[in-house]
Amino acid sequence: MTIILTILSYFAVLLLVSRLTAKQSTNDTFYRGNRQSPWYLVAFGMIGASISGVTFVSVPGMVNTIGMTYLQTCLGFVLGYVAVAFVLLPIYYRLKLTTIYSYLQQRLGTRSYKTGAWFFLLSKMSGAAVKFYVVCMILQRFVLDALGIPFVITVLVLVVLIWLYTRRGGIKTLVWTDTFQTFCMFMALIFIIVNVMSMLNLSVNEAVTTIVQDERSRVFVFDDWVSKQNFWKLFVSGIFIVVVMTGLDQDMMQKNLTCKTLREAQKDMCTYGLAFVPANLLFLCLGVLLSMLAQQEGIALPSSGDELLPMFAATGKMGNMVVVLFTIGIVAASFSSADSALTALTTTYCVDIKEKADDEALRHRVHAGMSVVFVIFILLFRTFNSTNLIDAIYILVSYTYGPLLGLFAFGLFTKYQVTDRWVPYFAILSPILCYVLDVLAQQLWGYHFGYELLMLNGAFTFAGLYVTRKKEPLRIGH
């Protein structure tokens, strides 16, 4: 009952913020926030939107399998955000885009444009469903199963709550709610860490020393080129993950495009890009401390790393206050990614697929329809998922975002025009080739592709566009 009351109280605050920010809202308010968002609010809120409930649950448990090597990917993130800020953002602002896929129409053609939009819809719906599944799973397992509430009802109620506070103000509301949610998430994280330190009888200095000396605190892997945790694999993959998951993702870029000027948007992106390393370091440190606490209490570590934090925080082992804080943290992280995903999906479908940016009635219908599809995807993921959640997201990203990387790379770094009618086929064929190559590599050489599949996928799409390119160079600037 504590968790349910916490969620309802938290939602009441979000609904209040929505009512205050959605007065006299228009389609421009919903899609672009009237281009009046303060850059520092966007930057702070984007931290929570990018982290999501997956990070909140999965990252602490990573330390027992791969140590702190995930930070190598986070270091790559930093360079990725710099690249997006100074390569992609200037183009988007110069063209005054509502959705970033409009660039593909201007540079490559209509089929390329539609292909990019459809791949985003599939990618974002899949990825957002995985992320939001986290909060539904935790609530169901640790609270709602005991009350006899079916998982379907859990999902329906939570998605309806998100729909209620995003349906009017859209992106303008999210800039403010994400700021609130990010604040709640970090406060919860810090208080949980302090509580665990208290249970271990450690001061701050002692906790830092203990974590540094723990074998799970290894960050860098330079000596094993075959390992999926090799530094250069994760570092370079981190760069491309950000370029694709942020720079080529309408969800992540939509908030950045609400800033007043390009310079403010660049400050916003570089600021929250730098915050990723310390933010994820906190989650990993929490994982080490929780593992030590489990050893101290004689509790066996869970088989799934995703269950390490919930095992302590959601079951009352650390007191009711931690249960409340954990609930606030995971709901804040999950809601901040799911609400922006629904808004971006609605924007892309209305503006890119239907090309009716001014139709307010259509926007309302699509927003409700996307919420229904979102529920279906979450239920499908529950049925078929059997892998670590954060890896599951990046696997999906590697297969579905790769064609977007190839399309934008061709548009940005070549002067050629594409044979537009062939673009959808290359975008579909590239992920299939990647999958076949991954299977063959495992069978023939025992090598399993990791996050580098994203780059390979983009390269296949780029190669197809280049081979079938029109011979005459582009005559207009892009």
**Strand neighbour order, sheet with most strands:** 1-2
Distance between the ends: 56 Å
Q: If helices are DSSP runs of H or I spanning 4 or more residues, what is the number of helices?
A: 20
Task: Choose one word for the global shape.
Answer: globular
* Classification by helices and strands: mainly alpha
At CATH level 3, the topology of the largest domain is Sodium/glucose cotransporter
Family: Belongs to the sodium:solute symporter (SSF) (TC 2.A.21) family.
Subcellular location: Cell membrane
Main location: membrane
Pfam families: SSF (PF00474)
Keywords:
single chain, 478 residues, mainly alpha, Sodium/glucose cotransporter, 2 domains, two-stranded antiparallel sheet, 20 helices, 76% helix
Walk me through this protein's architecture.
One of its GO terms (biological process) is sodium ion transport. Keywords: Cell membrane, Ion transport, Membrane, Sodium, Sodium transport, Transmembrane, Transmembrane helix, Transport. It comes from Hoylesella timonensis CRIS 5C-B1. It is a multi-pass membrane protein. There is one protein chain. This protein has 478 residues and is mainly alpha-helical. The chain folds into two domains: 1-385, Up-down Bundle (Sodium/glucose cotransporter); 389-472, no CATH class. It has helices spanning 2-21, 27-32, 39-66, 70-94, 102-107, 110-144, 151-166, 171-199, 204-213, 231-247, 250-256, 262-274, 276-297, 308-313, 320-353, 360-384, 389-400, 402-413, 423-445, 453-467, and strands at residues 416-417, 470-473. Helix 3 crosses helix 15. The N and C termini lie far apart (56 Å).
